């Protein structure tokens, strides 16, 4: 009887060990997780046309891309002009905003499906920092432009609020 119990115990152990981790020998790429032997994208990531898991912010930035009519209100002046926004060619979560305040080209980083940040950056003799959000079919961008110390053409900062419409 002991031999029969030992046989069943060993058989059960071998059967269970053959049902081991199906992900044990599978190497998934960045932003993926192995589930039952299959590599799946992590939450907030999706496969692009090359099968690579990229942030869903990549597809969300499409709505920002295009030619925009801008109405700008700044500390000392207001104006209307056009601005063009494109996708950064090599950084998936970034946008390029051309003609910000009619003269600057800056990059912006997507922080959600409808918001971006313009991190501190220098253009010529000025620094620029700001943020933007997409609501409905309109984009609102708030930014500050500041002359760098020792630059010609004045000093101080200008705060602006711009409404972008297509």
Reported for the largest beta sheet, the result is:
8 strands, antiparallel, barrel
What is the ordering of alpha helices and beta strands? HEEEEHEEEEEEEE
- The CATH architecture term of the largest domain is Beta Barrel
Estimated helix fraction: 10-25%
Label the structural class.
mainly beta
Which percent range describes the beta-strand content?
A: over 45%
Radius of gyration: 27 Å
Integer average pLDDT: 84
Strand and helix layout:
Blueprint: H1 2-18, E1 32-35, E2 38-41, E3 45-47, E4 53-55, H2 57-60, E5 66-74, E6 78-87, E7 94-100, E8 104-110, E9 115-123, E10 126-135, E11 138-147, E12 157-165
Antiparallel strand pairs: 1-2, 3-4, 5-6, 5-12, 6-7, 7-8, 8-9, 9-10, 10-11, 11-12
Give a summary of the structure in a few sentences.
With 166 residues, the protein is mainly β. The protein has helices spanning 2-18, 57-60; strands at 32-35, 38-41, 45-47, 53-55, 66-74, 78-87, 94-100, 104-110, 115-123, 126-135, 138-147, 157-165.
General description of the model:
This protein is mostly beta strands. The chain folds into two domains: 21-55, no CATH class; 60-165, Lipocalin, CATH 2.40.128.420. Helices cover 13% and strands 51% of the residues. It has two helices and twelve strands; from the N terminus they run H-E-E-E-E-H-E-E-E-E-E-E-E-E. It has helices at 2-18, 57-60; strands at 32-35, 38-41, 45-47, 53-55, 66-74, 78-87, 94-100, 104-110, 115-123, 126-135, 138-147, 157-165. It has an eight-stranded antiparallel barrel. The longest helix has 17 residues, at 2-18. The chain is elongated.
């Amino acid at each position: 009887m002991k031999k029969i119990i030992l046989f069943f115990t060993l058989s059960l152990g071998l059967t269970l060990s053959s049902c081991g981790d199906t992900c044990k020998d599978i190497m998934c790429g960045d932003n993926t997780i192995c589930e039952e032997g299959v590599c799946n994208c992590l939450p907030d990531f999706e496969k692009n046309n090359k099968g690579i898991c990229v942030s869903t912010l990549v597809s969300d930035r499409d709505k920002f891309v295009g030619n925009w009519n801008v109405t700008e209100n700044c500390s000392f002046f207001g104006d209307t002009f056009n601005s063009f926004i494109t996708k950064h060619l090599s950084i998936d979560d970034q946008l390029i905003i051309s003609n910000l305040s009619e003269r600057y080209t800056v990059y912006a980083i997507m922080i959600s499906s409808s918001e971006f940040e313009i991190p501190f950056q220098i253009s010529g003799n000025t620094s620029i920092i700001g943020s933007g959000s997409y609501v409905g079919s309109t984009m609102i961008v708030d930014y500050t432009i500041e002359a760098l110390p020792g630059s010609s053409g004045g000093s101080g900062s200008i705060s602006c609020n711009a409404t972008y419409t297509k």
